[in-house]
Amino acid sequence: MTMREEIEQAAARYPDQRSAIMPALLIAQKEHGHLPGPVLEEVADILGVERIWVYELATFYTLFHTEPVGMFHLQLCDNVSCMLCGCENLLKHLEDVLGVKKGGTTTDGLFTLSTVECLGACEMAPVMQVGDDYHGDLDIARVDALLDRLRATVRQATGADLAAAGSPGE
User: Fold this and answer.
1) pTM value > 0.90
2) How far apart (Å, rounded) are the C-alpha atoms in residues 69 and 65?
3) Fewer CB within a 10 Å sphere, N or C end of the chain?
4) What confidence category does residue 170 fall into, taking pLDDT thresholds of 50, 70 and 90?
């Protein structure tokens, strides 16, 4: 099934095409990996809605990416609960370990590092979302263990030696 057909099928479940924008964006992002301007315009055209409505949702919600992201998108919450529990130190550590600044992607394409306003999981602050998974009660050791697990996942899938992937100097 083409992206257009999937979007049209999803939109048929809604009485108002504007209500189908989020499901359509999820379909488009799955197809393209991210949502550049031409894809957002295509979604608007398929649904027959104003382009600005599509742009508003795509740029407001952190689950949508208008720029390419790495295989693992590390989204560290920096709202007040996480800030009080040390997210600033975790961000600095992640920047150092991965060799990228906030908003950057490692040269190997494995990790993109972002901060987000709120993940709604204050009870496990500081918290980070990776894909659909939340990781909470983080400290430097837990972050390092998480990065090791993510790299191991790629090694298992590809057989590649990525022990140093994302390290500074690569």
Assistant:
1) no
2) 7
3) N
4) very low
